[in-house]
Here is the input.
Amino acid sequence: MKTLLITASLISVLALSSPSVFAGNKHKKHDRHNHSFENTARVTHVEPIYTTVRVATPQRECSQRTYRHNDRNQTSYTSTIAGSIVGGVVGNQFGGGSGKKVMTVAGALLGGSLGRDLAYQPSAYSNYDRGEECHVTERYHQEERIDGYSVTYRYQGHSYTTEMDRHPGKRIPIEVSVRPSRNYY
Here is the structure.
């Protein structure tokens, strides 16, 4: 009876001291071709991996502008016609023969142009408005963003490093594969 108790105690101690008991083994169903199982490993170090990205930020830019508008009816051609008539009369006073005709036409054209310019020049009838002119531009700046994590973990006394998309926490699941060494063959 005493020997049976010692043997049972010894088997219990050996079973509990196995690394797979403490590591929380989750064995897959074993078959002849699958020599791997899942386990967990303790994370010892996590380092963020950064990448630099160019970020565009729309920004509205505005400036003050002054606009002039004329309150008079700008569709009237009276000043242009009157200027042409006066210019034609004055031009007719110069030259002789066919030169007189050329001077009359030149005077009419010049008088019409002056009459139009006088009608549209700034005067007491013109008003000035102030307003804002705005447009949107893109401002660019560099930003560092986390692209992943370099994770160091320990399994059965050995350290390993991998990259992960998200922070792993204190433990990570691992897959352990067992096969004979190539040096054996």
Q: What stands out?
A: Residues 98-120 form the longest helix (23 residues).
